[in-house]
Amino acid sequence: MEPFSPLGWSPADLADPYPIYRRYREADPVHRAGPGTWFVFDHEHVAQTLSRRDFGRNRPAHLPGRNDALYRSVRDWLVFLDPPRHTRLRRLLAAEFSPKVVAGLRPRIASIVASLLRPLWGREEFDLVREFAAPLPVLVISALLGVPGERHAWFRERAEWLQEASSARAARASGGLARASGGLARAETAAGELTEYFDEQVRARRAAPRDDLVSLLAAAPGLTGDEITATCVHLLTAGHETTTNLLGKSVLHLSARPDLARTLRQEPALVPSAVGELVRFDAPVQMITRWATEAQELGDRKIAAGDKVVLVLGSANRDPARFTAPDRIVVDRDTSRHCGFGMGIHYCLGAQLARAEAELALPPLLELLRGFGVSGARYAEDLVFHGPAALTLRAIGTA
Ligand code: HEM
């Protein structure tokens, strides 16, 4: 098969990569795309890689000699750490993202949802991503961290710039989407500005602690100042574009399936499992990366130490060996083995929070779809963080 690369994909393929994934999953599930670079398309080998310790997350040698703000921040991000540092930081943060903490946040999330959606009813046409799907996660994580919500547009822009870095790197590695250009420079600026901002917040909380996550991190024993700041920056960005994409894609899919929208309006108890199914069906994070820490086998392929292994979560979630009729949305299916939130030790820390946001947003969004129809969608040119960059809704009955 020709080496997998999204270079030159049409907008239609970027919006719906699943037929292309299927070809690779069927013919060459552990696929060598170039020297030292692999893409894994099937559920079995994606799950296996995520449970093995000989595939790591961190690759210090990856950025030799770097000391810029972006590198100094991401090197301390939970998602890029291996045990034992990962274990220590994860344990500390897990308590703050527990089901109990998230349950306590639900009224706050519901009120943010309502306040963002209310003004939209009076409009003839609007971009749902800009007005709702993008601000919601930033406002929620700002509330949790304890930083002022008015900054949300500033945070959002910087979170987007930072996320462009990982997309840009992945894009370059797989042939280079247009987004690679300029992305790293903007990410560098964002890392510098956010680090400065959170350094200041941490200093303020040390002087006068409050009841928020920044105060908790500032007081945590054993964390360095750099780790605290990097964790704040990481949390701000990790839950941002991911949740935005889940919300945008959910609206797109439900507007195309009025029968499903109707079912969920009539049976709101199905909303939580529908959210899981939407993450499975069209994963907001399509790909994650691991590095082989030693020479090993994956299926019948020989992976060399240091090789890069890209796990195509979006493809694994559509694997018919794991899910019956994987290309159909089945709102009450058992999605417990989907890997849209990852698997293993790096399983998404914010999965409960993201689910709560989507569960609280879906019912009012389904109401909105009674008065508005999707009149346009433009996908971001990105196969890592995957979803519509713009989603135009127009009042039904207006030209
Ligand atoms: C990790 C997806 C929302 C924080 C991950 C991973 C995935 C993922 C696939 C695993 C990365 C890997 O193993 O390389 C998603 C999706 C979301 C979402 C699809 C929304 C629909 C959130 C939210 C937060 C968050 C709201 C928090 C504010 C994190 C963190 C990690 C992570 C901190 C790293 C965990 C670790 O390394 O132990 N997420 N995420 N995510 N996510 Fe999420």
Automatic annotation (TrEMBL):
InterPro entries per UniProt: Cyt_P450, Cyt_P450_B, Cyt_P450_CS, Cyt_P450_sf
Source organism, top-level taxon: Bacteria
Name the record gives this protein: Cytochrome P450
Alphabetical keyword list: Heme, Iron, Metal-binding, Monooxygenase, Oxidoreductase
A GO MF label: heme binding
Keyword Aminoacyl-tRNA synthetase: no
Pfam hit, one: p450
Family: Belongs to the cytochrome P450 family.
Primary gene name: nokC
Keyword Heme: yes
